[in-house]
Recover the amino acids of this structure.
Protein backbone atom coordinates (compact mmCIF):
# COMPACT_ATOMS: atom_id res chain seq x y z
CA UNK A 1 0.00 0.00 0.00
CA UNK A 2 1.34 3.44 -0.92
CA UNK A 3 1.94 5.81 1.98
CA UNK A 4 -0.04 8.57 0.29
CA UNK A 5 -2.82 7.68 -2.11
CA UNK A 6 -4.73 9.89 -4.48
CA UNK A 7 -7.25 9.31 -7.23
CA UNK A 8 -5.23 10.06 -10.38
CA UNK A 9 -8.27 11.41 -12.23
CA UNK A 10 -8.46 13.08 -14.62
CA UNK A 11 -11.20 15.31 -13.34
CA UNK A 12 -12.75 17.26 -16.22
CA UNK A 13 -15.01 20.05 -15.02
CA UNK A 14 -16.58 23.15 -16.60
CA UNK A 15 -15.57 26.63 -15.56
CA UNK A 16 -17.38 27.72 -12.44
CA UNK A 17 -17.79 24.20 -11.08
CA UNK A 18 -16.85 23.06 -7.61
CA UNK A 19 -14.48 20.11 -7.46
CA UNK A 20 -13.07 18.16 -4.53
CA UNK A 21 -10.06 15.88 -4.23
CA UNK A 22 -9.32 13.46 -1.45
CA UNK A 23 -6.07 11.94 -0.31
CA UNK A 24 -5.43 9.19 2.24
CA UNK A 25 -2.26 8.55 4.18
CA UNK A 26 -1.10 5.49 6.06
CA UNK A 27 1.14 6.83 8.82
CA UNK A 28 -0.97 7.98 11.75
CA UNK A 29 2.05 9.76 13.26
CA UNK A 30 2.29 12.18 10.32
CA UNK A 31 2.77 15.72 11.50
CA UNK A 32 1.98 18.18 8.76
CA UNK A 33 0.13 18.17 5.49
CA UNK A 34 0.21 20.14 2.28
CA UNK A 35 -1.31 20.52 -1.13
CA UNK A 36 1.03 21.34 -3.99
CA UNK A 37 0.14 22.32 -7.50
CA UNK A 38 2.19 21.13 -10.47
CA UNK A 39 1.71 22.48 -13.96
CA UNK A 40 2.69 20.36 -16.94
CA UNK A 41 6.48 20.01 -17.18
CA UNK A 42 7.02 22.39 -14.25
CA UNK A 43 8.12 22.03 -10.65
CA UNK A 44 5.64 21.52 -7.80
CA UNK A 45 4.64 24.71 -6.01
CA UNK A 46 3.12 24.95 -2.56
CA UNK A 47 -0.60 25.69 -2.82
CA UNK A 48 -1.51 25.57 0.84
CA UNK A 49 -0.76 23.93 4.14
CA UNK A 50 -3.53 21.91 5.76
CA UNK A 51 -4.33 22.67 9.37
CA UNK A 52 -6.23 20.48 11.80
CA UNK A 53 -9.02 23.04 12.05
CA UNK A 54 -9.31 23.32 8.27
CA UNK A 55 -8.28 26.39 6.34
CA UNK A 56 -9.38 28.48 3.42
CA UNK A 57 -7.47 30.57 0.92
CA UNK A 58 -9.79 32.34 -1.48
CA UNK A 59 -11.54 29.69 -3.58
CA UNK A 60 -9.52 26.86 -2.02
CA UNK A 61 -10.45 25.01 1.16
CA UNK A 62 -8.36 22.29 2.75
CA UNK A 63 -9.55 19.89 5.43
CA UNK A 64 -7.77 17.31 7.54
CA UNK A 65 -9.41 14.31 9.19
CA UNK A 66 -6.81 12.69 11.44
CA UNK A 67 -9.16 9.97 12.70
CA UNK A 68 -9.80 8.71 9.17
CA UNK A 69 -6.36 9.75 7.89
CA UNK A 70 -7.48 11.75 4.92
CA UNK A 71 -7.01 15.22 3.53
CA UNK A 72 -9.27 17.03 1.13
CA UNK A 73 -9.01 20.00 -1.20
CA UNK A 74 -12.10 21.84 -2.42
CA UNK A 75 -11.91 24.28 -5.30
CA UNK A 76 -14.90 26.55 -5.81
CA UNK A 77 -15.74 28.53 -8.94
CA UNK A 78 -13.10 26.72 -11.02
CA UNK A 79 -11.05 28.80 -13.45
CA UNK A 80 -9.28 27.65 -16.60
CA UNK A 81 -6.03 28.52 -14.84
CA UNK A 82 -6.76 25.91 -12.14
CA UNK A 83 -5.97 23.17 -14.67
CA UNK A 84 -2.98 21.34 -13.19
CA UNK A 85 -2.01 18.28 -11.20
CA UNK A 86 -2.61 18.56 -7.46
CA UNK A 87 -0.20 16.71 -5.19
CA UNK A 88 -1.04 15.66 -1.67
CA UNK A 89 2.00 15.75 0.61
CA UNK A 90 2.37 14.32 4.08
CA UNK A 91 5.24 15.11 6.43
CA UNK A 92 5.93 11.69 7.92
CA UNK A 93 8.37 13.07 10.44
CA UNK A 94 10.30 16.28 10.32
CA UNK A 95 11.58 16.79 6.78
CA UNK A 96 10.54 13.34 5.52
CA UNK A 97 7.87 14.35 3.04
CA UNK A 98 5.88 11.73 1.18
CA UNK A 99 4.16 12.71 -2.03
CA UNK A 100 1.06 11.31 -3.63
CA UNK A 101 1.18 10.63 -7.35
CA UNK A 102 -1.21 13.52 -7.98
CA UNK A 103 -4.73 14.19 -9.24
CA UNK A 104 -5.06 15.78 -12.65
CA UNK A 105 -7.65 18.52 -13.08
CA UNK A 106 -8.76 20.00 -16.39
CA UNK A 107 -11.14 22.95 -16.31
CA UNK A 108 -12.94 23.45 -19.63
CA UNK A 109 -14.63 26.57 -21.00
CA UNK B 1 16.19 36.05 -5.10
CA UNK B 2 16.91 33.18 -7.47
CA UNK B 3 15.45 30.56 -5.10
CA UNK B 4 16.54 27.05 -6.08
CA UNK B 5 18.57 26.77 -9.28
CA UNK B 6 19.10 23.47 -11.04
CA UNK B 7 21.38 22.75 -13.97
CA UNK B 8 21.24 21.37 -16.59
CA UNK B 9 17.56 21.48 -17.58
CA UNK B 10 17.94 18.58 -20.02
CA UNK B 11 20.51 15.85 -20.38
CA UNK B 12 20.92 12.70 -22.46
CA UNK B 13 23.42 10.13 -21.22
CA UNK B 14 24.61 6.82 -22.54
CA UNK B 15 24.42 3.80 -20.27
CA UNK B 16 27.48 3.67 -18.05
CA UNK B 17 28.30 7.38 -18.24
CA UNK B 18 28.53 9.47 -15.09
CA UNK B 19 27.37 13.01 -14.50
CA UNK B 20 26.55 15.54 -11.81
CA UNK B 21 23.27 17.40 -11.48
CA UNK B 22 23.79 20.76 -9.84
CA UNK B 23 21.54 22.41 -7.26
CA UNK B 24 22.07 25.73 -5.53
CA UNK B 25 19.84 27.79 -3.25
CA UNK B 26 20.26 31.33 -1.97
CA UNK B 27 17.68 31.29 0.84
CA UNK B 28 20.02 30.04 3.56
CA UNK B 29 17.92 26.90 3.92
CA UNK B 30 19.48 24.21 6.08
CA UNK B 31 17.57 21.35 4.45
CA UNK B 32 18.10 20.26 0.85
CA UNK B 33 16.94 17.17 -0.95
CA UNK B 34 16.76 15.41 -4.29
CA UNK B 35 13.63 13.77 -5.65
CA UNK B 36 12.90 11.87 -8.80
CA UNK B 37 9.48 11.93 -10.44
CA UNK B 38 8.27 9.09 -12.61
CA UNK B 39 4.80 8.73 -14.17
CA UNK B 40 2.26 7.35 -11.72
CA UNK B 41 4.81 7.15 -8.90
CA UNK B 42 4.82 10.53 -7.25
CA UNK B 43 8.04 12.16 -6.16
CA UNK B 44 10.44 9.82 -4.40
CA UNK B 45 13.23 10.97 -2.12
CA UNK B 46 16.75 10.02 -3.24
CA UNK B 47 19.03 11.75 -0.72
CA UNK B 48 18.73 14.64 1.66
CA UNK B 49 20.88 16.88 3.83
CA UNK B 50 20.08 18.78 7.02
CA UNK B 51 23.20 20.93 6.86
CA UNK B 52 26.70 21.28 5.49
CA UNK B 53 28.66 18.07 5.94
CA UNK B 54 25.55 15.97 6.72
CA UNK B 55 23.78 13.75 4.19
CA UNK B 56 21.46 10.78 4.43
CA UNK B 57 19.65 8.34 2.19
CA UNK B 58 16.03 8.56 1.19
CA UNK B 59 13.72 5.96 -0.34
CA UNK B 60 15.64 5.30 -3.57
CA UNK B 61 19.37 6.07 -3.05
CA UNK B 62 20.97 3.29 -5.10
CA UNK B 63 23.08 4.54 -7.99
CA UNK B 64 23.34 8.11 -6.65
CA UNK B 65 25.80 9.97 -4.45
CA UNK B 66 25.57 13.37 -2.83
CA UNK B 67 27.75 15.73 -0.85
CA UNK B 68 27.06 18.98 0.98
CA UNK B 69 30.23 21.01 1.37
CA UNK B 70 28.39 24.35 1.67
CA UNK B 71 24.92 25.42 2.79
CA UNK B 72 24.14 26.64 -0.73
CA UNK B 73 25.07 23.65 -2.92
CA UNK B 74 23.85 20.06 -3.04
CA UNK B 75 25.04 18.22 -6.17
CA UNK B 76 23.68 14.80 -7.15
CA UNK B 77 26.07 12.39 -8.86
CA UNK B 78 25.04 9.51 -11.06
CA UNK B 79 27.90 7.06 -10.86
CA UNK B 80 27.12 4.80 -13.84
CA UNK B 81 23.90 5.78 -15.58
CA UNK B 82 21.27 3.13 -16.29
CA UNK B 83 18.06 3.38 -18.34
CA UNK B 84 16.09 2.96 -15.08
CA UNK B 85 17.44 6.37 -14.04
CA UNK B 86 15.57 8.08 -16.86
CA UNK B 87 13.39 10.49 -14.92
CA UNK B 88 12.76 14.08 -13.97
CA UNK B 89 14.91 15.15 -11.03
CA UNK B 90 13.92 17.92 -8.65
CA UNK B 91 16.00 19.57 -5.99
CA UNK B 92 14.11 21.05 -3.03
CA UNK B 93 15.07 23.11 -0.01
CA UNK B 94 13.48 24.39 3.17
CA UNK B 95 14.24 25.60 6.63
CA UNK B 96 15.18 22.67 8.84
CA UNK B 97 11.89 22.57 10.65
CA UNK B 98 9.44 22.87 7.78
CA UNK B 99 6.44 23.40 9.99
CA UNK B 100 3.78 24.68 7.65
CA UNK B 101 6.11 26.22 5.08
CA UNK B 102 6.75 23.26 2.79
CA UNK B 103 9.52 23.06 0.22
CA UNK B 104 10.81 25.28 -2.55
CA UNK B 105 11.62 23.29 -5.66
CA UNK B 106 14.02 23.91 -8.50
CA UNK B 107 12.69 23.78 -12.06
CA UNK B 108 13.90 20.24 -12.63
CA UNK B 109 16.34 18.29 -14.78
CA UNK B 110 14.95 15.95 -17.43
CA UNK B 111 17.39 13.07 -17.78
CA UNK B 112 17.25 10.41 -20.46
CA UNK B 113 19.61 7.44 -20.34
CA UNK B 114 19.90 5.53 -23.59
Amino acid sequence: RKEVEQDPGPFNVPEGATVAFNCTYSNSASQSFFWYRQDCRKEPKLLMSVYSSGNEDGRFTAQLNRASQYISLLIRDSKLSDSATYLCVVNKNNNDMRFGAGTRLTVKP
Amino acid sequence: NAGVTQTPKFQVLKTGQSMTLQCAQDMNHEYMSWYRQDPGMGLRLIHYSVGAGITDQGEVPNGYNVSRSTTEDFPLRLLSAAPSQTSVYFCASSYLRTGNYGYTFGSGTRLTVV
